[in-house]
Design a protein that fits this description.
The protein is flat and about 100 Å long. With 296 residues, the chain is an all-alpha fold. It is 73% helix and 0% strand. It folds into 2 domains: 32 residues; 210 residues, MetI-like fold (Orthogonal Bundle), CATH 1.10.3720.10.
Length: 296
């Protein structure tokens, strides 16, 4: 069989051409129009957060008045009155300062241990396996479950509270930091090695800035775990050692059936959480990952 190489393929059929009329600019809208004052206010993040809080407060007040049982669920106005009373007489301030002092000590110890363990894990393969194994073992273990051991080992008081706080902080921060280090692009790693960075300088100048979003997430999780653990531990240790923290403040009010004071203590815990999250961590985000363009 012979093939005629001189045969030319059939020309492709041409599609019919079509045109689209340009859209009039007036139908799109004035993209250069400056926003009005009302639009700026409604689009402001702070205003939106305040609006959410006001809505929650209104729901709280309406439900409490409808229930009409202060022993079961006090109104928001009654809770604020109790909160302001204990704030003026100094009791709530003293209890809060006691709790925050213990929290700072435990949180700092947890961060130092997490930094040491993560640096060791990055420096060697055996360190990575050790940290991964320890994290898998102890991260799911609730800090409250260690309260009996803390009582036996350290006795009543601040050392026992610091022990359970360190446990709640250490594994969350170490796990997120290690995950962040593992996600650092190989290009950055090679750049650091090419300029002769090793050990702590390599971790501090290359790995930490590149993995800082994950590290910051670990710091937030560790803070939340530490704050919850402290309040829960004070409900136990505060009764025995009378350490005088915010947990003991809540427990005393519960024994006296003073529900408004219980809500006042819970409101204090919430306010401290909001301040730390919205002020401290937001400031760190603005000065680091947002400034570097690493997240929106």
């Amino acid at each position: 069989m012979t093939i005629d190489l001189r045969h030319e393929p059939a020309p492709l059929a041409r599609r019919p051409e079509f045109e689209i009329e340009p859209t009039e600019a007036v139908t799109v809208g004035n993209v250069e129009r400056p926003l009005s004052v009302a639009e700026r206010i409604l689009n402001n993040e702070l205003v939106q957060r305040v609006a959410i809080l006001l809505a929650l407060i209104a729901i709280w007040e309406v439900y409490a008045r409808w229930l009409n049982n202060s022993l079961l669920f006090p109104t928001f106005t009654e809770t604020i009155a109790t909160f302001w009373r204990d704030l003026r007489n100094g009791e709530l301030v003293d209890r809060t300062v006691t709790s925050l002092r213990t929290l700072v000590i435990g949180y700092a110890f947890g961060l130092v241990l997490a930094a040491v363990m993560t640096t060791f894990a990055v420096a060697s393969g055996i360190g990575t396996r050790i940290l991964s194994t320890l994290t898998a073992m102890f991260n799911p273990l609730p800090a409250i479950a260690l309260l009996p051991l803390a009582l036996i080992w350290f006795g009543l008081g601040t050392p026992s509270l610091v022990f359970v706080i360190v446990h709640s902080v250490l594994w969350a921060v170490a796990l997120n930091t290690l995950s962040g280090f593992r996600s650092v692009p190989e290009t950055l790693r090679m750049s650091g090695r090419n300029v002769g960075l090793k050990g702590a300088r390599y971790v501090g100048l290359i790995l930490i800035p590149a993995a800082f979003p994950s590290i910051l997430a670990g710091l937030k999780i560790g803070w939340a775990f530490a704050w919850r653990t402290l309040v829960a531990a004070e409900l136990v240790f505060g009764v025995s050692a009378r350490s005088g923290g915010i947990g003991w403040y809540i427990f005393e009010a519960r024994n006296d059936l003073d529900t408004a004071t219980v809500f006042s203590g819970l409101l204090t815990v919430i306010l401290i959480g909001l301040v730390v999250e919205s002020v401290i961590f937001r400031f760190i985000e603005a000065r680091t990952v947002n400034l570097w363009g690493m997240q929106r």
